[in-house]
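Researcher: Here's my situation. A collaborator sent me these components and asked whether they could plausibly form a single complex. I don't have experimental data yet, so a predicted model of the whole assembly would be a useful starting point for our discussion.
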Amino acid sequence: MHCSSCVYLLENLHRLEAGIIKSTVNFQRKEVFISFNPTLTSLRAVVSLLAFTGYEPAISLKDATSAVDEKNRLTSKRLNRAKIFRIGLAGFCFANIMMLSFPEYLSSGTVDASLSNAFTWLNFVLSLPVLFFCASGFFVSAWKSLRQNILNIDAPIVVAILVTFGRSYYEIISGQGAGYLDSGSGIIFFMLIGRWFQDKTFDALSFERDYRSYFPLGVSIITADTNVAGKTHEKNVPVTGLKQGDRIIMRNEELIPADSILVKGNAQIDYSFVNGENSTVHKVQGELVYAGGRQRGGAIELRVSKLVSQSYITQLWNNDIFNKPKQKKESFVHPWSRYFTLVLFSIAIATVIFWWFNNPGNIWPALTSVLIVACPCSLLLSHTFTNGNMLRILGNNKLYLRNAQVIESLAAIDCIVFDKTGTITRANQSHVQYTGLPLSATEKAGLQLLSSQSAHPLSKMIASELKNKVSYSPELREFREYPGKGISAFVENLSLKMGSANFMKAQVTQGIQQEGGSKVYVQVDEKIKGTFSFSNQYRTGIRKEIEALKNEGFDLHVLSGDNSAEKETLEFLFGPEARIFFRQLPEEKLQYIRHLQLNNKQVMMIGDGLNDAGALLQAQVGIAVSDNHAQFAPACDAIIDGEQVKNISRFLRFARAGKKIVTASFILSILYNLVGISFAVTAQLSPVVAAILMPASSISIVLFVTLAGNAVAKKQGLLSAARPDEDHTAF
Amino acid sequence: MSVLFLLIGTSILIAGAFLAAFLFSVNEGQFDDDYTPSVRMLFDNPAEQPSTEKITTTNK
């Protein structure tokens, strides 16, 4: 789904298919809910209609194996509603309490006693839902962390809330005054908004994907007919039901679900899904075929040799790190709030001691005022609003973070590990080069036409490369494709052939290089004309970016699952001091990251393939590169658009600046607190001072962090690129 | 001054009615998707489709 036209088409499905009753689109989630009448149409027909209109539903193994996923989504939806619910209720109560408190502040005793009494009691009633319902999230979070012997930022907040409301209720019940209900509920309202602002997520993206999201749901297996010997049946079974020894059929473009042995047919396995390599691998009968490969060519028959969950690629997920949740690093705000609490309590104690000797009657009001006014809520507000703002700015620049915690991890990074294919090179684009005898215009046109007939990835690349160099299109006759070997046809009076070296009739005289990527030979009228060779196409701007990262002192590494054909180019790009490794297995990548971490490195891994999945999860920050949403984006902390890889250094600078902003706003909020405390310790904090000071400090801090965040983004050139409208087309 | 009791009571009632309307709409899921409805209202749907009528009523 990309634009409003998609919404239109999908919501009018009932006009295309009579059985469909209603379809409703949720654009941000990229979902459509369809209700249909099963007597008029079938699920199958609906799915094929969707595929026909260009919105093929994503059906994967994951849908079958985990109902948990769906349940999680529903709970998150409910949680999101509860959040809005709380904000609405808190806002309502806060505004009314504020209004009812005004006479108390401004009239200074001229208001009728019964009237002001009524106001106070109304406030009392209005504040109850704020304390018991809206603020419950803070109580729960504080209690949870206390039970784990951690003092998080919510603990002092809860103390402040309890003292504020407790003292106010005491004053109201004993008839002494109106209390601080207005500032108390106001603070809760602001803090709820801050949390909501920070937690707003990118609905359409999933950061939890594993191999199951990409594996097919069902597979065709062959069973022997029990009645007639030698006759076989084909039937569909779910992938999870595959057993060792099952014989399965894989057709063109199908993904192999389990490690198997080739029994019959011509296998051209494309492992680009696993390691990002473009060329296909030819397999002969009896050879092992790994799961995750995609057959390109005719149907093949395989015998399953390992269960799906024990296959080579899926084994990675049996590694420990996939089974335990990623260790949550504590935000640097929490230690701050701990010092804050310590200082606060020492001030409180000092205040008590002072009044003990001077005027014991002031102990109680002074102590409670200190605790009320010095609420660390401005710490929380500055943190949540800065992060929320940064998430949005980064999202507009097509770097989508999983949550706000990732920003802090980003700021601490000192070591960056790159994957090669799909990360610093483009995934599906190679540089095609022709070497050999010059080709005539007819030959070029013929070769372009010939190569455009085949679905083979290399053939497609040649076709698109030659497309611009061809001025007319001749007639093609007797096209033939030899799976795994090459293609041939007649164009005008020429006999053309393209394919691998052993497909050529004439002896190949040029040196055949094994290392150096794939080659396609061209033969015109029984004569070898030359070869097309393929090399990786590097992303534009990547060289400058690596230069910038090097200058900023980052430790750079490259881990490639591919062969070492690009070694020289990479060494040129990264310079002599970078460590570059080829033919890395998924497990090796993971171990390498772990090794770096043992040397006290804060590692960021940028990769795209299934083979990077372990490393992405192990790294402090794992960023998955995605050129389009259909491509594999494994479990990670962030998803980045392929074209934005060249801005990594800016994003890192931005994240570090974010930390400075939070620190600066802390200092600002401490200044506010000093003013408030100076009122409080002298036992002079009147409700009106609190009511002015607390919202004013909150709002000015929110303004400060938002403006500062935008200023930094502008400096890094991230704001000019921010076009919220484009946000929707990105994925 | 005692008329204020009445006024305050009324104002709280009215505000409470709006709050109830808001909470109702949250529960109905009107805040689940804040983008699609803005697009949907621009389509010219023929009125005789019962299903589309349903959609427009929820969007009011």
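Model: Some features of this prediction you could bring to your collaborator: The first strand of chain A starts at residue 20 and ends at 26. The radius of gyration of chain A is 33 Å.
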